[in-house]
Amino acid sequence: MMNYLDILDQVRAHVSNLFHTHKDERLTYHNLLHTEQVVKAVVKIANHYQLSDHDFFVVNVAAWFHDIGYLTSCEKHEERGAELAKDFLESKGAEPELTGLVSNCILATKMPQRPVGLLEEIVCDADLFHLGSEDFKERNKLIRKEAIAFSGRDIDKEEWRAKTIVLFEMHHYHTDYCQDLLAAKKESNLNELREKVFKAHHGKTKEKGFHDSAPVSSEKHTEIIVEKKDKDKKQKSDRPDKGIETMFRISSGNHQRLSDMADNKAHIMISTNSIILSVTLSVLLRKLEDNPHLIIPTLILLIICVVTMVFSILATRPTVPPGTFSQQDIEEKKVNLLFFGNFYRMALPDYVNGMQKMMEDREFLYGSLIRDLYSQGVVLGRKYRLLRIAYNVFMFGIIAAVLAFVIASAVVAL
């Protein structure tokens, strides 16, 4: 069995040595510092997902080797990095399965990223971790400087910003952890780039108007700004808002936990009263002929247990809707397709058609989520109302039954 920690130390030393011995001054971004930052990000994401030692080793080795191919050529550097990682691991006695996982993680970083599985997603997200970080500006300047060095031509800021914006719009984080951690800052970085592009374009428009003796009027200036704001507002409204999605996710999770708690409470009541009924029927009823004074207290106890069990069972008894919806329901956006009770009797094509229309319509989608939350709340309200009745009946009923037994025994004693 491989000693993963020991091999990782050797990997770090090996890759660091390669960067030092094959140092290329043009690599202002894809250098040892970037590699170390990717490794740091990989460790952070891997710790969140609590990977096994084996998987932790895979993503770390992939992070160390993912850009080592730049030392040879920018072209197909992922393939070169995968080959170097494979050669190194095989020299340490690694099995083909392990080298294959590492190679796949490295190749998954090729743009556009198409990772398969959690390990590849972690490496891909770590590689572009800086897009959603505070140091994006500095890292982006280094990438531009490197691109200029390798291309042999100057790339002006406007051209570079346009390419970076395309990268932002094509890219998305694959792991839930990075989506929650980095998406907001990534969006902020993207908006800042767009704002700079807009200002640069507007500045050129003013400059052109000045030379053409046709300066932009203040009304036109206001119109452009309003148009930009309206466009940004529309873009923002067309995108699912992260805060709203988080609210729905948290609310739905809370409702589910409350529902589970209600079911557990009902099961406790049912189990407790079942035991009391079993003991009463098997023990007390046999002795009622010899102890007639216990008949009324016993009947009270039996009634209390039965009533409590009935309300507890009602609290957990499922209510299933018809399971169908019409095309009119879809067009009027009335049906909630997120609840199985509304579609389980429908044909698959009808359900797929309804879901596609819902996903294309932001109002329909959020309306369905709202209806789903409301329905969960209604069910929870019913459950807890019935449970409260069951607990009250049991609490006061047990007190009454105990008092009845005490009174009956006292009367007989007198």
Overview of this protein structure:
This is HD domain-containing protein. It is found in: Cell membrane. GO terms for molecular function: nucleotide binding. One of its GO terms (cellular component) is plasma membrane. With 414 residues, the protein is mostly helical. It folds into 2 domains: 239 residues, Hypothetical protein af1432 (Orthogonal Bundle); 170 residues. Helices cover 75% and strands 0% of the residues. The chain contains 15 helices and no strands. Helix 1 packs parallel to helix 3, helix 3 crosses helix 5 and helix 11 packs parallel to helix 15. The longest helix has 52 residues. The chain is elongated, with a radius of gyration of 34 Å.
Characteristics:
mainly alpha, Hypothetical protein af1432, 0% strand, HD_phosphohydro, membrane
> Percent of residues in helical segments?
over 70%
Radius of gyration: 34 Å
Uncertain segments: 210-229, 233-240
The run of helices and strands is HHHHHHHHHHHHHHH
| Main pleated-sheet profile | none
Oligomer: single chain
The fraction of residues in strands falls at under 5%
- Count the domains: 2
Number of helices: 15
If classified by CATH, what would the architecture of the largest domain be? Answer: Orthogonal Bundle
Tell how many strands the DSSP assignment holds.
0
CATH superfamily of the largest domain: Hypothetical protein af1432
Reported by name, the CATH topology of the largest domain is Hypothetical protein af1432
Structural class: mainly alpha
